[in-house]
Amino acid sequence: MSRTSLWAQFDAMIVHPGKLPSDCIHEEAVMTEEELIQISAEYKRTNSPGLCRAFIFATGGSVRGVYLAPQIGSPCDHLAVERLFPNGAISIKLLEVPGTSLKLINDWRVLVSSGKVPAPANVSVQSYFNVHWEGNIVLACYHRSAPHWPRMNHAPLALSPFIVLLLKSFLQIYVALDKAIENGEP
């Protein structure tokens, strides 16, 4: 089962386009610290409406805040992430801590590689969680005061420990679901 069809089982899935036409895919490169700093600075310089600071667990091993902006003319949570995911990305919205019924104070969006082609192994996910993952993972935070008019919020750097725990909970559920599907379980 593809990553996109697996994720379609979650709520509020969004498909984010890559920087190439969908019929022209290429191997993704390892995302270095220097590239992340450059991409973040470029978005910050644009001062675009909807600019937000998200967290990235990068294939090159970095875990850091990175500035992103929505795609031009799109809703706020349709982030322009083609530099981080050249073959496109998919994302879901988290309303609760995965695997629990604990409501999050802010909703979060988790973005991952679309899985169209194998992406590099994610060194940061392997080192933090001992989980094999291919491609970058981005977590973006919604502003809590606008439930009927969603907008993204700057994820405070002080939330780093919480974000690590949130991603750990998500990965545990995702890996369990992936294994169940692989084993033919309903």
Textual characterization of the structure:
- It is a single chain.
- The protein is α+β, with helices and mostly antiparallel strands and 186 residues long.
- It has one domain (3-179).
- 26% of the residues lie in helices and 23% in strands.
- The chain is built from four helices and seven strands.
- Strands 1, 2, 3, 4, 5, 6 and 7 form a seven-stranded antiparallel sheet that branches.
- β2 and β3 form a beta hairpin.
- The relative contact order is 0.19.
- Which regions have little confidence, pLDDT < 50, spanning 5+ residues? none
* Structural class designation: alpha+beta
Please state the CA-atom Rg, rounded to the nearest Å.
16 Å
Number of domains: 1
Number of strands: 7
Number of helices: 4
Mean pLDDT: 82
Share of helix among residues? 25-40%
Strand content: 15-25%
Order of helices and strands: HEHEEEEHEEH
Shape: globular
Taking the sheet with the most strands, its summary is: 7 strands, antiparallel
How far apart the termini lie comes to 13 Å
